[in-house]
Amino acid sequence: MDNIKSGAFIKQKRKEKGFTQKELAEILNCTDKSVSRWETGKGFPEVSLLIPLSNALNVSVNEIILGEDIEKENFIEKSNGAIVETIKSSNKRIKNTHIVLYALIVIFETFVFYVPSLMASPGDEMAVVLLSVGGVALCSFVLGLLRTKLLHKLIFIPITLALFILSTFIHFTASSFFDYALPYSGFFIMLSLALILISSGLSKFFSVMIAKLKRK
């Protein structure tokens, strides 16, 4: 989907209808700034506005998406192409959003592991442990809710272990490493795995339930 091409098409059809940007905006119950953004390729109409816009300009939604008139003999082929391109564009945006969220979760977990360790006094070992456990639990559960492949979610576990083991050298001595790091490493593996699987299952369950409710 090419926003610039679609915007030029919207502008052309608006002028053919004799509408100003303000008049078209009033028909669609939006702002003339929104119409201006569409026409300059800086934005694209919301899904809820596509049908009203197509009716106002007397074109199809597919023609708006493609940014060109579709001849009758090519309508099916062009329409299918527009739908495929829209799905690809949507999937790309979702994928990029999940990558950003994944990175934010890793950054947050890094913060939970390292900041308390750097700020804690020698007698605060238990507080550091509890914060680490809480951070891993929260990050694992939230990660499981993301709509990404399970394999990508499970990669989070070795990332967690690497961050945790490195953080132990900040607050704990080498002699206490085996007494602390190794037992908690096993615990974090089980905790993270369990919560990722649980939240992934819940996410899939609610997605199915919402889809069923929409069909009703």
Count the beta strands: 0
Q: What percent of residues adopt helix (DSSP H or I)?
A: over 70%
Radius of gyration, in Å, reads: 26 Å
Question: Low-confidence parts, pLDDT < 50 over ≥5 residues?
Answer: none
Structural class, judged by helices and strands? mainly alpha
Distance between the termini: 32 Å
Tell me, rounded to a whole number, the average pLDDT: 81
Portion of residues in beta strands equals: under 5%
Instruction: Characterize the main sheet.
Output: none
What is the helix tally? 10
Shape: elongated
**What is the H/E string?**
HHHHHHHHHH
Give a verbal description of the structure.
By secondary structure, the protein is mainly alpha-helical. Helix 2 packs across helix 3, helix 7 packs antiparallel against helix 9 and helix 9 runs antiparallel to helix 10. The model has no long low-confidence stretch (mean pLDDT about 80).
Keywords:
216 residues; mainly alpha; 10 helices
Brief sketch in words of this structure:
It is built from ten helices and no strands.
Strand-helix topology:
Blueprint (H helix, E strand, L loop, with lengths): L2 H15 L3 H8 L3 H8 L7 H11 L3 H6 L8 H45 L5 H21 L4 H5 L1 H16 L2 H42 L1
